[in-house]
């Protein structure tokens, strides 16, 4: 489960195990919240990009950066960090915010089934 698609691992299993240890019985609930919240945050970011409102990207990107890293979704975290920085710089900051947003969605779509597999294994 350490697939790499252009960069860091999709899911850092060491971080996953650390999160399981730290959260104990609440890990599955936290992952479920993460999956639901990430869909909403990605949609908020996409809407902000479509409306050319880069200031509305910063908060959800910042939240995704932290929550993703905590659970081991390192690609999502790294892209969210890039996106947050680009949004803080504004549309002319040299980073392609639309491209980063597409990469963020792709990274989440790569990690989502891996988290669901972990949840299924825990339930078994």
What is the gist of this entry?
By secondary structure, the chain is mainly alpha-helical.
Structure notes:
The chain has a single domain, classed as Four Helix Bundle (Hemerythrin (Met), subunit A). Helix content is 74%, strand content 0%. The protein is built from five helices and no strands. The chain has helices at residues 13-23, 27-50, 58-71, 74-89, 97-123. The radius of gyration is 14 Å and the shape is elongated.
When the domains are counted, the total is 1
Could you tell me the mean pLDDT? 88
Low-confidence stretches: 1-6
Number of strands: 0
As a percent range, the share of strand residues is under 5%
Instruction: Report the principal-axis shape.
Output: elongated
Approximately how much helix is present in the residues? over 70%
Listing every helix as H and every strand as E from the N terminus to the C terminus, the arrangement reads HHHHH
- CATH architecture annotation: Up-down Bundle
Termini separation comes to: 19 Å
Main sheet specs: none
The number of helical runs is: 5
- Structural class of the secondary structure composition? mainly alpha
Q: Which descriptors apply to this entry?
A:
single chain, mainly alpha, Four Helix Bundle (Hemerythrin (Met), subunit A), 74% helix, elongated, disordered N terminus
Tell me the layout of helices and strands.
Blueprint: H1 13-23, H2 27-50, H3 58-71, H4 74-89, H5 97-123
Helix pairs in contact: 2-3, 2-5, 3-4, 4-5
